[in-house]
Amino acid sequence: MRQLLVLALLFFVPDLSAQQGPPKDPGATRTPDLVELVKLDSTIKLDIRYAGTNNFLGKPVYKEARAFLQRPAAESLLRAHRALKTHGYGLLIHDGYRPWAITKLFWDMTSGKQREFVADPSQGSKHNRGCAVDLTLYELATGKAVQMPGDYDEMTERSSPDYTGGTAEQRARRDLLRKVMEAEGFTVEPNEWWHYNYQDWRLYPIIDIPFSAIEK
Questions:
Q1: pLDDT tens, 186-200?
Q2: Residue 36 belongs to a domain
Q3: By C-alpha distance, which of 172, 183, 192 is closest to 80?
Q4: CA dist 66 to 2, 84, 117, Å?
Q5: Catalytic residue among 75, 116, 157, 192
Q6: Which of 89, 120, 158, 174 is the most buried (most CB within 10 A)?
């Protein structure tokens, strides 16, 4: 009987799909205060890919094209946006706060190498805390998104913030974005040039509030 029990434990794989809600982080003591980014400055542009079909899943997972961050992160982002204006650019937001249920959906619908680019729902993500933002630059003169060395949500080596390919102009824009964001307390994700995490992310809980429950 004991041998059977040991074998059962060895071959037991937790069923992540059975997880019913976001994990609790006892160190996350700050009360969430999500701010809608376009309300801070209407010149912050949105291209919320997960509200449409132009994303790695090929289908919408958000019912509304909206973007939020915790207030200190949002205010820092606004300063970065205004600093970029002197260079002829503005910020174009692809994603901000992401409900935990969406992170779980991403995990359930990916496998293998793709999972290097999505968060494990058993741990939650910085997006779930309202302290991560996916973004790029747009040209003030044309209103169009710029070209970077790789595309948003591209699951290849071109997504690295240190990728040496692409054109010199593309790398310069990517590096300018990084410089301005880091000056405002953000750090870039190691394998995603577009993904920035706010410095206080550990202080905020992993939450699962739908966009529809956040005041318009």
A1: 999 999 999 999 999
A2: yes
A3: 183
A4: 54, 22, 22
A5: 192
A6: 174
Please write the tens of the pLDDT for every residue from 24-82: 999 999 999 999 999 999 999 999 999 999 998 899 999 999 999 999 999 999 999 99
Place of tokens 């992310």: 201
**What is the number of structural domains in the chain?**
1
Reference 106, options 118, 123, 94; nearest CA is 118
Q: Domain holding 138: CATH number?
A: 3.30.1380.10
Closest CA to 122 of 110, 109, 107, 132: 107
Residue 7 resides in a domain: no
Residue 173, in any domain of the structure: yes
pLDDT above 60 (res 162):
yes
Indicate the helix (H) or strand (E) that contains 101: helix 100-108
Q: Is 199 exposed, middle or buried (0-12, 13-18, 19+ CB in 10 A)?
A: middle
Whether 103 and 79 have beta carbons less than 8 Å apart is answered as no
Taking the C-alpha atoms of residue 43 and residue 48, their distance in angstroms, rounded to an integer, is 15
Task: Write out the residue range of the structural domain in which residue 127 sits.
Answer: 32-206
Q: Is residue 192 among the annotated active site residues?
A: yes
CA distance 37 to 45: 9
Residue 100 lies in a domain: yes
β-bridge mates for residue 69, sequence order: 35
The per-type count for the chain, helices as H runs and strands as E runs, is: 5, 7
Q: Is the pLDDT of residue 11 over 80?
A: no
Q: Which is more confident, 17 or 5?
A: 17
Task: Judge if pTM exceeds 0.85.
Answer: yes
